Amino acid sequence: MLDGGNQKRLSRRELLRRAGLLGLSVPAVSALLAACAREEATPTTAALPTTAPPAATPTAAPAATPTPAAAASPAVTVGPAAGEIVIGVLATLEGAFALFGDEGVRGVEMAIAEFGGEIGGKKLRIVKESTDATPQVAREKARKLIEQDRVDLIVGPLSGDEGLAIRDYAKTVPDKTFVNGTSAAQDTTLRDPAPNFFRFSTDGVQWMAGLGTYCYQEKGYRRVATLGEDYSYPYSQVAGFLLEFCKLGGEVAAQFWVPIGTRDYSSVISSMPADIDAIYVILGGSDAVNFLQAYADFGGQAALIGGSSTIDQNVLEAKGNIRQRVIGIPGAGPVAADNPDPAWQAWVEAYRKQFPDGLSTPSLFCWGYYVNAKGLLLGLREVNGDLSDGQKKLQAALAKVAFDGPTGHIELDENRQAIANNYVTEVAKGPDGNLYNKLVKVVEGVNQTLGLPKEQYLALGSFTRDNPKCEDIHRAFGS
Amino acid sequence: MTWTQFVTVTLNGLTLAALYFLVAVGFTLIFGLMRVVNLAHGSLYLFGGYVGWTVAERSGNWILGAVTAAVVAAVAGLALQQALLRPIQGQDLREALVTIGVSIVAADLMLAQWGGFTYGFSPPRAISGGARLPVLDIGYPRYRLFLLAFALVVGLVLWLLLTRTRLGITIRAAIDDRDMVSAVGVNVQRLFALMFAFGAGLAGLAGVVGGSAFSIASGEDARYLLASLIVVIIGGMGSLPGTAVASLLVALVEQYSLALFPTYAAIVSFLLMVVVLAVRPQGLFGRPA
Asked: Which domains does chain A carry?
């Protein structure tokens, strides 16, 4: 055996070369393998304990039951069978954003359950596809859903850059209809929108409505630094905060943009200027947790202001002592956990009933996928499930859909973008020990330009890591 | 950059290097001895972290959590080596592919078991909280200093083990020429199993020790695998001093770039790797073929 091994052994140099190559190809290969694995697993991902719908809701069951034929041969089940409507769901079901994806799928399942799992006598079936929050994979998976699984409609995606990619892809398949998940880059619908992409959820700028004003007027912050991940959604969030904060006279001392997945924030924290009142932080999932932990460890003095995902329920329910460090942080977003609105209370109740092992309160990801799926299903009901004529009838109906969701009235503007309520919140500890976003202020009917004149708003240009600056905001809108 | 900022960022680099060293050293030892590129190493790290968190939370004892994590990861590593890798020993491409497969399956299983939540540890009071550094008068988290000390101890023990003990001599001999070592009557298979379990155990331990500095969450496995790969490619596969020096280089470069130009921090460590590979393809401490 050793002799055999000896002959097969490669020279050290060859080995090193191969090892290096392997190392570089690991991300690619594993992404590929993960993709394959996920495709195979599509019918069964619902079996994960976290996403499995309870037996109490028979309506969601068809979607979750793996069709035996699917496992045997994909050729048998692809495409809608007679009398069924197939909805593809794009969400991040693995990796750092896995929890968000789970929440998104729950939102879709809630909406479908609400409609009894069928519309116009046609059964609703969902096909889940996992993305990894990158635009390339989102586009690839959307194509797979449409070309291979032959879905009629797509709900998703979850993350900012993905949304831009899906918007562009949607233009190439005009006879399919897309509704957003929670992707919240503003440009997805503000600039160059796709006629068949609808967003019933608000975007990253809208989610900040009210926060800049609250921080300036109530908290008395005058000078802030901003810290965010370096992609389209945090750009929108920072811009949304600055639009109000700068207009009132606030100043920005420094801006930091870090790569997604940054683990160690200690050096960023030590680079923060000393003369600031607060740091505006927009980081998602474990990035937010890592930052909050490091900030506490390093004895950070400035107050914190949270972007919508920094203080989302997913972060608040992180396990361990990090939870104690977020109490009192102001933030804003499309949901507030203790919203007294009966519609919200009823929705939270339904969520808890349908997902006993879900979060204590549904997160904004559940909300986003829910309102988008609900908008889509309302449109479908309007046309009685009729998808003929290249879905033209459905798309026309969707543009007119308006409804009262768990967070109040939602309607679309001419770019098929939601106008909805927004909530300024503060992290608080509930009587049961769970952390939640306590409602501070409701901002009603927030549109995409935060009520600012559209022409000047568009003239600011796309939001990037350097845009907008406070001076630009003063110049455009006065102060 | 001010003086205090420079010191803090340097300390951040040193402590991050400590963590990289803890994770990568098992990886490089396994490679050095067995020529197996264990691409499931990150999964062992994450697995150790989850198990350690669960035990620490139930028992309220962080140290017990860390020890359990090391033991459980070592057993998992041993099982991986005995059940899957031993039958295909010597076929390095297959070995690498099998370990990639294991890492993907493990990632999904762990996601099903622990969910997508982020887990934070509560280390004992003695090593948490802030410390005031003498002379410089800079506040610094005590846990990070512990991390640095811990990695130094592990590195020192390993170095003594490899250079001063009979086992270490056998291991070094086997790294140089395992057929010869086997011919003089050493049970090489047992040595392999021991080393694999040891490397896996270190990864599991790092899951708790490193997870306490940051956090544990789904997706960390891939990040630490990548970090380990960069470290051992720069340091030279299979070299203990190489791993130590490369950990320092990678972590310091990462921290300085995060402080100076955070936007481009992600690519800088890859740039470092490109430069090293261009100048010294075998890595800084790797031996030429």
From this structure: 42-202+341-416 (3.40.50.2300), 206-333+421-477 (3.40.50.2300)
Cross-chain residue pair A22–B96, CB shorter than 8 Å: yes
B55-84 burial string, b = 16+ CB within 10 Å, else e? bbbeeeebeebbbbbbbbbbebbbebbeeb
The residue assigned the tokens 């609105």 is: A341
Q: Which residues of A touch B281 (CB under 8 A)?
A: 13, 16-17, 20
Is the minimum CB–CB distance between A477 and chain B shorter than 8 Å? no
B136-184 tens-digit pLDDT? 777 889 999 999 999 999 999 999 999 999 999 998 888 788 888 889 9
User: What is the ipTM metric for this complex?
Assistant: 0.86
Q: How many CB atoms lie within 10 A of CB B150?
A: 18
Alpha-carbon distance values, A207 to A164, A340, A345 (Å): 18, 19, 21
Q: Domains in chain B, please, with CATH? A: 3-279 (1.10.3470)
Contact yes or no for B9 and A99 at CB 8 A: no
Q: Please give the model's pTM, rounded to 2 decimal places.
A: 0.84
Q: Cα separation of A404 and A407, whole Å?
A: 7
CA-nearest residue of chain B to A300? B139
Put simply, the answer to whether B220 touches A286 (Cβ < 8 Å) is yes
Cβ proximity of A260 and A230 under 8 Å? yes
How far is A218 from B281, CA to CA, in rounded Å?
59
pLDDT band at residue A71, thresholds of 50, 70 and 90? very low
CB atoms within 10 A of CB B159: 14
B122: nearest CB among A17, A29, A321: A321
Residues of B in contact with A270 (CB under 8 A): 4-5, 8-9, 12, 259
